[in-house]
Amino acid sequence: MNQSPIFTTTRRTFLRQSAAALAVPFAAPLILAKPVAGANAKLNLAWVGIGNQGGRALMGCSKGNNVVALCDCDPNCWPKMQQRFPEAKFYKDFRIMLAEMGDKIDAVGVGTPDHTHFAVAYMAMSMGKHVFVEKPLTHSVWEARTLQKLAAEKKLITQMGNQGHASEGARLIKEWYQAGLIGEVREVVAWTDRPKGGWGFNGILKTGFPAEEALPEGMDWEMWLGPVEKKVHFSKFFHPTTWRPWWDFGCGGLGDIGCHTIDTPYWALDLGAPESVDVEMHGEVNPIHTAFGSVVSFNFPARGGKPPVRVKWYEGPSVPEAPVGYDYGAPVGEGGMIMIGEKGGICHDGMRPDSPRLYPKQKWEDYRASGDKQVPKTLPRTQGLYRDWVEAVRNGTPACSDFGYAGPLTEAILLGSLAIRTGKSLKWNADTMEITGNPEAAKLINPAARKGWRPEDLA
User: Fold this and answer.
1) 331 forms bridges with which residues in the sheet?
2) Could you read off the pLDDT of 33-64 as tens digits, one per residue?
3) How confident is the model at residue 26 (pLDDT cuts 50, 70, 90)?
4) Over the stretch 326-348, which tens digit does the pLDDT of each residue have?
């Protein structure tokens, strides 16, 4: 394959170069791209990773469009989609799919495990394809910054799969905060039952890789391993659903749910990059598998006239105490978020902002009874994350969670995952992409990838 003009050096060499090598603002401007087909035309879609969430995202984006190519290294996922999309060509290797079908594809979706998001998206974007990528956007900070830069250079329509960002609840929270309903915010509390429980986690701590099991018939395990250099055998502890707690493949509970639950306060408060990340480990540091019970504090600096903000994240089984004035009961369950303001706060239950409300309860009841005095809806609404991306590709307008926004959010989340992975706090310089105070985490900004999975192999 021809080498991309963006990458004339290896990934490791990049980190030794100046920050100008990724000359993109930490929060990139919205990108206006040329429409692919027009408002009413059908897009030609390809999708990589069609089981579980990847399949759900495919179904959400496919309505009214043509699905021309599908890829999954486990052909046991194929039959359902073959029935649903009989005209599509099926592949085990996305590289072959893109090479053979590239001129027939307008946009590509990525629903693979975290560690292969970058390779698929990078190759598709290098070919000028618009992309949808499940959350977290990438497996490493370097990868997130690289995709953000590539999207800006190629003027591509991009979207990360944090569904709550397109929701009504996210917009209400931002509008309430901007209208001053709770005053200024200096602290946010968020929590999840992951990795101790929840979908994608089995609640079993592992200190070694599991024994080899029989490979599902026809599966390409080397393709599933992707850029991982170490030899890891197939196990049901990895595939099809419980790969998330393993550091080589996923990003733990924070990487899984943080792009949902931290997303709304990050957006509402315009948080940008944290200056530092602190961690409290309630379990042993584990080099291959996430610990249980970690507490991570993201320390964001002042922004203009707004004060610094601490976002404190609790992973199962750790849970926060209720803040002063919060009278909805103890923070428990699947997860939730509380923005602590000078005049009460904003909260929601669950990983996404589906039903936000004000606290204390009386403040919420008074607001609901205020009728036409309620805060006006000033932010544009969407028809959901999938439709938002499809319409953006058709019309050349920015998607709501494009990489200019999702890239910096993912970087912040991944810094927290690195703190948990190493068991140490860290300081972060977003301009130079340097971690100080934690040399183990610094080495993981840009982990090595094996041959065939590096940018120079994919462009």
Assistant:
1) none
2) 555 656 568 999 999 999 999 999 999 999 99
3) low
4) 999 999 999 999 999 999 999 99
* Domains delineated in the chain: 11-165+385-404 (3.40.50.720)
Residue whose entry in the numeric block shows the structure tokens 């073959």: 82
Residue of 188, 211, 456, 164 whose CA lies nearest to 326: 188
Nearest to 122 by CA among 33, 227, 42: 227
Whole-Å CA distances, 431 to 18, 22, 29, 273, 436? 10, 10, 16, 10, 13
Q: How far is CA 221 from CA 75, 227, 307, 315, 344, in A?
A: 11, 12, 49, 31, 52
For the chain, how long is the longest CA-to-CA vector? 63
The tokens of 154 are what?
A: 């190629």
pLDDT beyond 70 at 210? yes
pLDDT tens track for 352-401: 999 999 999 999 999 999 999 999 999 999 999 999 999 999 999 999 99
Q: Is 378 helix (H, G, I), strand (E, B) or coil?
A: coil
CA dihedral 405, 406, 407, 409 (to 10 degrees): 90
**Tokens (6 digits) for 66:** 């043509």
Q: Which among 312, 314, 356, 349 has a CA at the least distance from the CA of 334? A: 349
How many C-beta atoms surround the C-beta of residue 452 within 10 A? Answer: 13
The answer to whether 68 touches 44, Cβ cutoff 8 Å, is: yes
Report residue 459 as tokens.
Answer: 């462009």
Is residue 131 within 8 A of residue 109, CB to CB? The reply is yes
